Amino acid sequence: MTGPDRVRLAELDLEVTLRAIAPSVAWPAAGVSGDGRDLASRVGAWLVATPRPADRRRPAWRPARRAAILALAAVLILAAVAAAVAFGIPGIRLVFGEPPATAPPSAAVAQSPPPGPPGAGLGLGRSVPVDDLGRQAGFAVRLPSDPAIGPPDVAWLDTRGIVTLVWAPTTDLPVTTDPGIGLVMTQFRGGIDQRGLQKTIDIGTDVEPVEVGGNAAYWLSGDVHYFSYTSPTGGFAEDGARWVGDALIWSDRGRTFRLETSLGRDSAIRIAESVE
Amino acid sequence: MKGRPTEDADLIARARAGDVAAYEDLIRRYQDVALRTAYLVCPEIDADDAVQEAFLKAYAALPRFRDGAPIRPWLLRIVANEARNRRRSAGRRAGLAQRAAAASGSAVEPSPEAQVVADETRALLFAAINRLRDEDREVIGARYLVELSEIETAEALGIPRGTVKSRTSRALGRLREALADLEGGRP
Question: Could B59 and A28 be called an inter-chain contact, meaning their C-beta atoms sit closer than 8 Å?
Fold first, then answer.
């Protein structure tokens, strides 16, 4: 057998042969468990046993669904605690999945811009004059120096000292998932949570390690993901969280930044590298 | 495109409206390929458990599924992600295993296709596949063992469609090298 096999192996059409051995793989089978239920039934039983989330279509944020969402969020949070993987960006936790119950409604799926200045209604805090932002925030806020971007239209400051700069859509800043927003840049002082706790639970979101000016950064794209900061006390408060689209996250000189744009990864990095 | 788009769309719509039975039907359509994909990405994990978890996550994400898109690649991506996450803590690498019947060649009659490949050749192929790094094993396995389309392979592995061909080609090259090594060491 050895002789002929050698000849065949040297000459075989690998693609055809691989397809031929596919049935020989010890594939797992969708078996029936001891209680007589197959995989689909087990998933179905789990879903029936918990409040159904099927009507949880944003933007409708229905209190009746909160129990299910809270339960799922708790699972995600526990998973995050258990995994505690540090990617080198302090104060950030990424959760891909359903938002927790305390999340404010997002404008991400609104059909038209909400009333008020860009970012209004997103739970970003109070609006602050850009030229007084540093004094009120307690740290020197950095801005993109790219002339095509210009100064932000609105600056927001929340009670945790997180600054969010918002630009309305322009020809250079196409609309994001928020209809009234062309660019969002969030920044806060690093060290809110020195454990650098992060957890990714993928449901179709890509997390791509990139660099911004030589610093570790992550480009998040694909399915809409849920983003939250850890609280100043290191707890897992979910306030201030919301849904976002593609985003770039990086840290630089004691600051952690998040930039949301529909311009794509490379443009996001260019904008980020212009921050000074 | 594989799958039954019209019927899938109906099941998806009903599942989104809270019809768990419809979602179960959807799972049954794709659970086999989901299990194979999970096993391919990480043979060391409990594929059944990983796929259950993936389907739960998919259900939660269903409102964000793009209407009209094929659901099979989308599901496989979630499954592969789940398996890949578990791989990180799976410990020792086991590699793809042969079915016991195929390995013994006697207990159960192998399929006609499997009979084409002699036992020893098949064993060498498995050994060579398991020598490959994860990235190569995944793309070869997705294309030829699970027989996913290029689009499905791209989705499941999280790579651009245009990369599937080139990565497959390189992986086949490395598989040939692994086979040559193994043949060289054979008595």
Answer: no
Query: Which among B19, B24, B122 is the nearest to A40, CB-wise?
Result: B24
Residue of A nearest to B66 (CA): A223
Residue B78 sits in the same domain as residue B132: no
- Compute chain B's Rg from CA coordinates: 18
Based on the domain organization, do B22 and B73 belong to the same domain? Answer: yes
Looking up residue B19, the CATH number of its domain turns out to be 1.10.1740.10
Q: Which of B35, B118, B183 sits opposite A30 (nearest CB)?
A: B35
The count of structural domains within chain B is 2
* Domain residue limits at A200: 63-273
Block means of pLDDT (10 residues each) for chain A, length 276 residues? 46 81 88 73 79 36 32 36 35 44 40 68 83 84 86 87 87 79 82 35 59 79 53 38 66 79 89 90
Provide the number of structural domains found in chain A.
1
Domain end: B42, B65, B87, which one?
A: B87
Q: Please give, rounded to a whole number of angstroms, the shortest distance from the CA of B61 to a CA of chain A.
A: 7
The 3-class SS string of chain B reads CCCCHHHHHHHHHHHHCCCHHHHHHHHHHHHHHHHHHHHHHCCCCCHHHHHHHHHHHHHHHHHHCCCCCCHHHHHHHHHHHHHHHHHCCCCCCCCCCECHHHHHCCCCCCCHHHHHCCHHHHHHHHHHHHHCCHHHHHHHHHHHHCCCCHHHHHHHHCCCHHHHHHHHHHHHHHHHHHHHHHHHCCC
Report the pLDDT value the prediction gives residue A33, as an integer from 0 to 100: 63
Tell me the shortest Cα–Cα distance from A28 to chain B, in angstroms. Answer: 6
pLDDT for position A240? 36
Give the Cα separation of A38 and A109 in Å (integer).
37
Domain assignment present for residue B29? The answer is yes
Please indicate, yes or no, whether residues B64 and B118 belong to a single structural domain of this protein. no
Chain A residues in contact with B97 (beta carbon < 8 A):
25-26
pLDDT at residue A12, rounded to an integer: 65
